[in-house]
Amino acid sequence: MTNLWEDLETGPDTPDVVYAVVECLKGERNKYEYDKDVPGVVLDRVLHSNVHYPSDYGFLPQTYYDDGDPFDILVLVEDQTFPGCVVEARPVAMMRMDDDGEKDDKVIAVPAEDPRYDHVTDVDDLTDQRKAEISEFFETYKNLEAGKQTETLGWENADAAKDAIEHAVDLYEEQFA
Length: 177
Fold this sequence. Notes:
Keywords: Cytoplasm, Hydrolase, Magnesium, Metal-binding. It holds the Pfam family Pyrophosphatase. Mg(2+) 1 binds at residues 67, 72, 104. Its EC number is 3.6.1.1. Belongs to the PPase family. By secondary structure, this protein is of the alpha+beta class. It has a single domain, classed as Inorganic Pyrophosphatase. Helix content is 18%, strand content 32%. The protein is built from 2 helices and 9 strands, in the order E-E-E-E-E-E-E-E-H-E-H. Strands 1-4-5-8-6 form a 5-stranded mixed beta barrel. A hairpin with a 4-residue loop joins strand 2 and strand 3. The longest helix has 19 residues, at 158-176. The radius of gyration is 15 Å and the shape is globular. The chain starts with 17 loop residues before the first strand and ends with a helix.
């Protein structure tokens, strides 16, 4: 069985087009995580706060970020996909974030094959409302978990997101290659 973190390339044209492995679905409270030992997507927990994912959320294969996990990615979709779905995505922004004292940035991307997002190429193409909804979710989704604290630290452009992806690929190669 294929291990989506170790066996799948980061993308067909990294960092401009990457593969996002979906774990959590737009509109849901279930927090799924890919377990490379299964390998498969397992239910990690149900969010304690009464909030839902603002879009499909997952990770980039063959990446390792500063928090010791695969690099997180939020893919802006109109309709949810499914846990384990692989989406070709174009990075358009990055949201800086602190999760319990650890750097936990998020790549924001759009599906490469959805014409509704052809015009979205950089952070300035996202509406202030969309950015506020994403920030609000990540600032509050752990509020009711004992001892958990998150803080969003601002937005970066597509180039910064691509640089961070390359950093996460380099870290993966250093740790696991």
